[in-house]
Amino acid sequence: MEIGLIFAIFISNVIGLECLYNSRYKTTGALLILNLCLTVALAYQFQQMDKIIMILFVVVLIIAVFFGGRVYLNYRRHHPKAEIIEQIEEKESE
């Protein structure tokens, strides 16, 4: 079973690199996702799922904090401008 998974990962990488070289980015992305799934399946065979789940959880948490902070800072940056525009519009309408 493990040999088949390793062989499938190798084939997926080879085809993914070929598609990347020929500028077929959607196919390359699909093959990279397949490669990740095969890697998790291989790790499951070796009883390493606890470590992988913990690493994926940390990565998802870091991504969520990064994008959450980015959205918050964008909101903070643009919110005062909206208030100033509303005040200017009110003065112009008078």
Structure description:
This protein has 94 residues and is an all-alpha fold. The protein has two domains: 1-47; 49-94. Helix content is 91%, strand content 0%. The protein has helices at 2-21, 25-45, 49-93. α1 (2-21) runs antiparallel to α2. The longest helix has 45 residues, at 49-93. The mean pLDDT is 80.
Low-confidence stretches: none
Enumerate how many helices there are, as a single number: 3
Number of domains: 2
Q: How many β-strand stretches?
A: 0
Strand content: under 5%
CA radius of gyration: 24 Å
Shape: elongated
**Element pattern in H and E:** HHH
| Biggest sheet features | none
Name the helicity range: over 70%
Structural class: mainly alpha
Taking the alpha carbons of the first and last residues, their distance comes to 78 Å
Short description:
The protein is 91% helix and 0% strand. It is an all-alpha fold and 94 residues long. Helix 1 packs antiparallel against helix 2.
